[in-house]
Amino acid sequence: MIDIVNVHGRLARPLRLEREARRWSQADLAQRFGVSRAVISKIERGEASATATRLARLSAAFRLTLAGLLVGVYGSSDRMSRADVQPPRTDPETGWGRGQWLTLPDHPTELAKIDLAAGKEMSFPASTCAFIRQAVWVVKGRLTILEAGERHDLVPANYLAFGPPSDATLSNDAQEPCTYVVALARR
Q: Which domains does the chain carry?
């Protein structure tokens, strides 16, 4: 299993190439990402950690989805994906595990299977959803989503289609892990 925190060494080159392709300086990316230029420099040298939240914010700065950013890290733009070659990614800090089912640069939709450990949560700023539409479908366990000040408690077979971009927190307050599927479309 590959953990998201250890992706930072592999993120350095694709991040720099993405930034340079857009003709952005490190300062330009830092402003869009909301950090100092020194942080961008450390990430590009593979010296800074890449938590799931940081990766989501970085992808938003590029107007990419998280999976779109990770395609540059892990490669693969095949139209068919086999489970045995999909590296699961887990953020040990949050217990958030992501298995990407569908990510193609020229396809408008993505599918991901997420595992969220018991008692853990993930928060995402509105900026990470500014250019996507998404829905969550719970497969097993319980998931609570706080979105735009509204609480949604989901159990298996429940889904939530997210509204306009807003800060969101997905949490698993139960004693068992939660598994859910995220379907998203680029705007």
A: 2-74 (1.10.260.40), 83-186 (2.60.120.10)
